[in-house]
């Protein structure tokens, strides 16, 4: 491994040099001008961590429990589509790293490897990310396959009923390569677009025609015993509605700035969502996690765990499974160091009282 890799940002710099520019733009970019991608990192930088001194940390650990399932750390690998874009083994290599570092992994509906093969590499802590399909039978077929393969939760992504304006990737000329496909979906999954009448909208009566609604979540809850987590919640009212419907947990997320832009960051809305759902309701969050201290900030704001997105692909591009394992090791070590220095031997010691808003720095 290249000795210059000391933190996750080093992986990004190396990946940027190694990947075709259009592929890098596709991964790094967001919707519109990328303002929400930038906001995610900026939001985390607003905080300082207040340490408490002379705390006995000898029994310290980062262990957490999510919906009754034990995790060695409060970080999971976010669902990322088409991982073979950056490495021939794609999701299989990522899963090997997750297993080696005892880290939870959420496998995307748009994975470029069979969901069963990825599950085969992961003895535990594997969740499946579900995009509800235009045909209900296609959705149920994915659910049954995820159940049989041993996935222990379904993460239903609800913030991307249509693809956002990916101007940065478009400008760079990104095209999906013909050999990197969503292998878990049927080749013909279009329900067939009906011809639009004059005056109808390509978005509302076109792309959104088969987009899921609350009714689909209600129906899905009746179809499976797996816990259902909704990913992409940013409003306290939606969070409460989801909890009341019987959803088991939420991911507070703006999809890494790739869906609605501008939209709030998870950092901004997490405290009000925590308040809305209550202390014990499982809440995960993502966007911009690049340091162990970022994980700490999210936990202090009310998350039980965080998801790590883009750094997976950067590390995978640089050094395959070994790269992803190194990336996970770095962020895990950083979290442990941050907790030790802050005087928080366990995740439950990390509270809002440990955060201070940064003073606004005078402009030079
Ligand atoms: C290249 C790329 C592909 C993604 N694919 C999916 C996906 O298939 N399903 C999903 O729910 N989220 C997807 N996301 C969003 C991530 O799961 C996650 O919410 C986001 O990347 C977190 O922000 P971060 O990259 O700053 O860590 C994708 C994000 C990126 C960058």
In short:
This protein is α/β, with parallel strands linked by helices. It has helices at about 10-20, 20-30, 35-45, 90-100, 115-120, 135-150, 165-170, 200-205, 215-220, 235-245, 265-275, 290-300, 310-340; strands at about 45-50, 65, 70, 75, 105, 125-130, 155, 230-235, 250, 285, 305-310, 355. It is globular and about 70 Å long.
What does this structure look like?
The protein is α/β, with parallel strands linked by helices. The chain has a single domain, classed as Aldolase class I (TIM Barrel), CATH 3.20.20.70. Helices cover 39% and strands 13% of the residues. It contains 13 helices and 12 strands. It has helices at 8-18, 21-28, 35-44, 91-100, 115-121, 136-148, 167-171, 202-207, 214-221, 236-245, 266-277, 292-300, 311-342; strands spanning 47-49, 64-66, 69-71, 75-77, 104-107, 126-130, 154-157, 228-233, 249-252, 283-286, 305-308, 355-357. An 8-stranded parallel β-barrel has the order 4-5-6-7-8-9-10-11, surrounded by 7 helices. Strands 1-12 form a two-stranded antiparallel sheet. Helix 1 (8-18) runs antiparallel to helix 13 (311-342) and helix 10 (236-245) packs across helix 11. The model has no long low-confidence stretch (mean pLDDT 96). It binds flavin mononucleotide. Flavin mononucleotide (FMN) is lined by residues 27, 40, 78-81, 108, 110, 129, 157, 231, 253, 255-256, 258, 286-289, 307-310.
